[in-house]
From TrEMBL:
This is Mitochondrial fusion and transport protein UGO1. Residues 154-164 have a biased composition (Acidic residues). The keyword Membrane applies. The keyword Membrane applies. The chain crosses the membrane at residues 245-267, 287-309, 330-349. It is found in: Mitochondrion membrane. Its main location: mitochondrion. Residues 1-20, 145-201 are annotated as: Disordered. Signal peptide: none annotated. GO terms for cellular component: mitochondrial membrane. Keywords: Membrane, Repeat, Transmembrane, Transmembrane helix. Coiled coil: none annotated. Residues 167-178 have a biased composition (Basic and acidic residues).
C-alpha cells in the first residue's frame, strides 16, 4: 500500500471525518459503531437513555433521577415532533390548504354535474330508442293513407262491377249503356272533393295517437323522441335519473382508481389510472390491470346502473323514484346472473379502444402524443369512431337485457326493482329480449317501425357529434399547451 494513495486502504480513508464507509461493514462513526446498531439501540429505551448519558448509577441522587426523567420526556417529544414534521401531517389542517381543497372539490362536482345535465336528455332518448317498439305519427299517417287508397280502390271496383251487371247483351244497346256508365261514374268527382274531410280524419287519428299510453314521437330521430318526451312529461321527463347518472359516474372513477392503486404495488407497476400505459415499465401488465379494474367496477356498480335504467323507462309518478329508498329495499347488492355477460361486454366495449389504442400505437408503431402529435390525434379520432360503432349494438343488448329482467325475470323473484303492471308504467312499449346472440337479429328483422340497421345503431348521430366535439376540444387544448411551452422558452 502506497502512502500517496491512502484510499486503497478503506480503514485509513478520511480518518478525521465523523463518519466513514468500510466495505463489508457499512457506514461507521469514529467509535466504530454502525448506523444499524444505532437504530437498534435507539429503539430500546434503556439503550437510548444510556446513549444520551442519562443512565443512573448506584450513586445517583433523587434529583438527578428526576432530571433524567425530564430529559427522557423531552427527548420523546422531540422524536414525535420530528416524525410529524417529516409526514407533513399538520399541513392538511392549515386554513389555506383546506380552502383550496374545498374549492377543488366544489369545482369538480359542479363541472361533473353540469356535464351530466347537458348529456342526460340525449342519453334518455337513446336508451328509449334502444329498448322501445315505437309507433310514430308519421308512420300512422302513412298507414292511414294506404288504407284509404285500398278502400277507394275497392269502392271503384264495386262501382265497375255494378255497372257491368246492368250491361246488355244486344249490340244495338251498347252505345246507350256506355253513356249510362259515364253518368254513373260521375260521383267519383265528389270523392275527390271529400279530401279535406279525410285530412280532418288524419288529424283526429294523430290526436288520438298522441294521447296513447306509450310515447309517440313524430319520427324515430333522437330529437323527435326528446320533443315527444318533453310534451308528454315536461322538463322533469328530460332530466330523469340525472342524480343516479352523476353518482354512477363518480363512483365508477373512484372505484377504478382505488382498485388500480391497490393492486399496482403488488405487480410493481405504476398506477394505470394516473400513468399512461406507454409510460409504464411493463405496458402489457398495466393494460391488463386497467381493463380488469374496469370490468370489476362495472360488475360492482351493476345494481346502480339497473336502478338508472328503471328510472328512465318508467313514467314520472308511476313508481318510487328515490335512489336511497330503492337501494335500501334491495335484497342483494350484486349483479344478477343474467346480466353478468352483457355488463362485462359493455364495460369492455366502452374502455378497450381508449386503453388499447395508445398501447398498440406506441409498442408496434412507435407513435405517441409527443413525438407524432398529428398522427396520434388522427388515430385517436378513428379509434373513438370505431369504439362508438362497436359499443352501440352491445349497449342495445345490455339495455334490453336490463328491461327484460325488470319486467319478466323479476316476476319470479322478490326483487324490489321489478316493474309491476309494466303496460301502464313503461314510457315505451318494450321491444323484447331474446338472448345475447339473437337480440340484434330480432331487432333487425322486427316487423314494427323500429327495425333494420337503424335499430341496431340507435343514437349514432349524436354519439358521432360527441366524439368529434371531444376530439376538437382535445386538439385546442394541446395547441394551447404548445403555445404556453413556447412562451416559457422565451
Amino acid at each position: 500500500m502506497s502512502d500517496l494513495r491512502p484510499y486503497h486502504d478503506p480503514t485509513s480513508f478520511s480518518p478525521t471525518n465523523p463518519i466513514t464507509y468500510r466495505p463489508g461493514i457499512g457506514v461507521v462513526d469514529q467509535q466504530g459503531n454502525t448506523i444499524a446498531s444505532k437504530i437498534a439501540n435507539s429503539s430500546h429505551s434503556r439503550r437510548s437513555i444510556s446513549g444520551l448519558g442519562l443512565s443512573s448509577g448506584p450513586g445517583s441522587t433523587r434529583g438527578s433521577s428526576m432530571r433524567n426523567l425530564i430529559k427522557i420526556n423531552d427527548y420523546n417529544e422531540g422524536l414525535k415532533r420530528d416524525v410529524y414534521s417529516d409526514l407533513e401531517f399538520m399541513e392538511y389542517f392549515e386554513t389555506g390548504n383546506i380552502v383550496e381543497l374545498l374549492k377543488s372539490m366544489i369545482n369538480s362536482l359542479v363541472r361533473g354535474y353540469s356535464k351530466c345535465l347537458i348529456a342526460q336528455p340525449f342519453e334518455v332518448g337513446r336508451l328509449l330508442l334502444q329498448v322501445g317498439d315505437f309507433e310514430t305519427k308519421m308512420g300512422n299517417l302513412i298507414k292511414e293513407q294506404e288504407e284509404r287508397k285500398r278502400e277507394s280502390g275497392a269502392s271503384e271496383d264495386e262501382e265497375e262491377e255494378e255497372l257491368n251487371y246492368f250491361e246488355s247483351k244486344d249490340k244495338d244497346t251498347e252505345e246507350p249503356q256506355y253513356r249510362k256508365t259515364r253518368v254513373i261514374r260521375a260521383p267519383s268527382v265528389s270523392h275527390k272533393k271529400s279530401k279535406p274531410q279525410a285530412t280532418q280524419k288524419e288529424l283526429k287519428l294523430t290526436k288520438k295517437n298522441t294521447q296513447s299510453k306509450y310515447l309517440t314521437p313524430v319520427t324515430l330521430n333522437t330529437i323527435d323522441v326528446i320533443s315527444a318526451l318533453l310534451s308528454s312529461e315536461g322538463m322533469r321527463g328530460l332530466w330523469r335519473a340525472s342524480n343516479v347518472t352523476f353518482v354512477y359516474g363518480a363512483l365508477s372513477s373512484t372505484l377504478e382508481a382505488w382498485i388500480t392503486g391497490f393492486i399496482s404495488p403488488f405487480l410493481q407497476i405504476p398506477d394505470p389510472f394516473f400513468v399512461d400505459v406507454v409510460h409504464s415499465n411493463d405496458p402489457l401488465t398495466t393494460l391488463l390491470l386497467s381493463l380488469s379494474a374496469t370490468v370489476i367496477t362495472g360488475l360492482l356498480l351493476a345494481p346502480l346502473d339497473l336502478i338508472r335504467t328503471r328510472l328512465i323507462v318508467t313514467k314520472i309518478g308511476s313508481s318510487e323514484r328515490s335512489i336511497r329508498k330503492t337501494i335500501s329495499r334491495l335484497n342483494y347488492y350484486t349483479v344478477p346472473i343474467s346480466l353478468v355477460v352483457p355488463v362485462t361486454m359493455n364495460t369492455l366495449a366502452s374502455q378497450v379502444f381508449k386503453k388499447v389504442t395508445p398501447y398498440l400505437l406506441f409498442v408496434h408503431c412507435g407513435i405517441d402524443a409527443i413525438a407524432s402529435p398529428v398522427t396520434y390525434s388522427i388515430c385517436s379520432l378513428l379509434s373513438s369512431v370505431m369504439e362508438l360503432f362497436v359499443k352501440l349494438p352491445i349497449e342495445t343488448i345490455l339495455r334490453r337485457a336490463q328491461v327484460h329482467y325488470l319486467v319478466k325475470d323479476a316476476e319470479i323473484s322478490s326483487n324490489a326493482l321489478k316493474i309491476q303492471d309494466s303496460d301502464s308504467k313503461l314510457v315505451v312499449k318494450f321491444a323484447g329480449y331474446s338472448g345475447i346472440f339473437t337480440t340484434l337479429y330480432d331487432a333487425y328483422f322486427n316487423k314494427g317501425e323500429n327495425s333494420g340497421v337503424e335499430a341496431i345503431w340507435r343514437g349514432w348521430r349524436v354519439g358521432l357529434l360527441n366524439v368529434v366535439a371531444e376530439w376538437g376540444l382535445g386538439v385546442i387544448r394541446s395547441s394551447e399547451d404548445v403555445l404556453n411551452s413556447q412562451e416559457e422558452k422565451f
